[in-house]
């Protein structure tokens, strides 16, 4: 009936499970969003949950760095942020897509205020290091976007006009397409791309005799030769399903979502409790953990393990061999961010940039401008947000070297850095204790041969987390996975057939 469109699929928030947990003991490993959402839902059903969390805080990767936040990377000293009160940056999640129903559902249910996150801003820059005539210059996104769109549509319109396009279109259809191309690219009556207000002004329009002065388009060949059409600069934000506006963020930092769960779960939460052994037993599970007092053993009926796989792969266990193999095989990426505090919001005051992202082809990859406290005095920029090889290289540096790099490269775009920078803190997630990676990255091979092993319980142990979904790198993945496992476990415990409608959409 679903396939025929006769039945509407259940929305993600339809989660009315029947039956009671009758006090069965569930031990949940990890107080990230997956662990806490599992505990929250299971508690509603009458289960007796205990959450073991290795860190001194909840939230896992859902973490906003503010004054006093402490950060731990392997082979490095613990660092403490000393940003000004009220300032923060999201070291992990910073954006909630409007189509992530479950993330928004929990914000609503738990009373977490949200605000619009400005992910797309035509005033930000493209900056290509290189040897082209447009290299090493900052160019507004609107200039590149409109010029490239204009030239491409001009070429297509000419091709259509000349009848060079091998397509079965009628003359009228072809005419419609040409009209569309002219509108899309802002072409003139001769179907040529020329300067227009779309790409901005060199002198803004004003009162009286000030009509404004349009800026001239860049040359297509120069754009290409300067690397500005390379993959580093693909205009992904508006096209990618999850990154399309409207996007949201939690007011005051994304970890307000984690803190809202924590408030509901305090009595069952053990912080600073590092799990060191996970064992299936004949009638349940036995978990060993260490805290400040010593080593403890905890027995339960079931366990839900949300520990990220690169960490789990080094924890003692008696998993079955296909589960162990999956834990070892599935890869996570390298990724890092640095928060840079400035004593003046020069990007707003001097450059009219309010939120959004500048793109580079150097180690920085991206600079994120804050989507909160507009027009206030100070602010924190995310000075880089990089991935894979670039994140790996930057992750090898000391904290001071990372700061130097962010400032040195950032100054090429914003010379104001020199006079306004105050302090920083950087996070390399693949070096961060208890995470050891940004998020799970599947190949078709690991998706086919490793992923399925973790979707089923191994004896009395269930697995949940961002990594067990097709929503990798999203909080929604943690929530969807938690609900899926809660439904499975509850179904087994109540011997009823209750399945969770899994979300299958992915852009
Ligand atoms: C840089 C970055 C950017 C992101 N951007 C976005 C975004 O914009 N929007 C979005 O929706 N999502 C984003 N995400 C993804 C989102 O943060 C994750 O999908 C989600 O937070 C994962 O939750 P989880 O519960 O599955 O895992 P985690 O948050 O990793 O939770 C696992 C928990 O297990 C604990 N643990 C580990 N080892 C042990 C142990 N031995 N004993 C006990 N506990 C242990 C950890 O401390 C942690 O608390 C981003 C992630 C990163 C890293």
Automatic annotation (TrEMBL):
Coiled coil: none annotated. Gene3D superfamilies: 1.20.1440.240, 3.90.660.10, FAD/NAD(P)-binding domain. The keyword Cell membrane does not apply. It is an enzyme of class 1 (oxidoreductase). Its EC number is 1.13.12.3. Residues 33-489 form the Amine oxidase domain. Pfam families: Amino_oxidase. Pathway: Plant hormone metabolism; auxin biosynthesis. Keywords: Auxin biosynthesis. It catalyses: L-tryptophan + O2 = indole-3-acetamide + CO2 + H2O. Transmembrane segments: none annotated. The keyword Ribosomal protein does not apply. Belongs to the tryptophan 2-monooxygenase family. This is Tryptophan 2-monooxygenase.
